[in-house]
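Example: Regulator of G-protein signaling 8.
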Amino acid sequence: IDHRNRGMRTRLGCLSHKSDSYNDFTAILPDKPNRALKRLSTEEATRWADSFDVLLSHKYGLAAFRAFLKTEFSEENLEFWLACEDFKKTRSAAKLASKAQRIFEEFIDVQAPREVNIDFQTRELTRRNVQEPSLSCFDQAQGKVHSLMEKDSYPRFLRSKIYTDLLSQTQRRLS
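Written out as structure tokens, the predicted fold is:
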């Protein structure tokens, strides 16, 4: 995962894992959180409920979703998805194999430190794909993880206190 995400992980690290209630968004929103919260409109935050991909494509939506997944101890799914997105941008053939191996060992391999929940067939197909890596070698596994997050974590995120508190914070600003 690239260096830009490390800082965000550090900022999100101070969230409590015991509750998804969060009123201090300084740890969730990347870059100058007070300014970010002022710039985040209720309309933007409400649009995150339109679709999972809208949420993932919004910088603050992604940060809030990551914070929520941390409360559920399942942030590895999002981290894997982001690692795959970053991997697809790899232009150096020399880096392709080492990046693929690193992602496989961190997220896909059995007993990986941040193992994602995928079925045996997908795991084995990905293992074979990584032997001769291409930009699409993680596509099936990434698709499964995306689908899992969309069907399972995303609806819970929309009902979470993190999301509802963030929405009310943006609405309060308008009054």
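DSSP finds ten helices and no strands in the chain.
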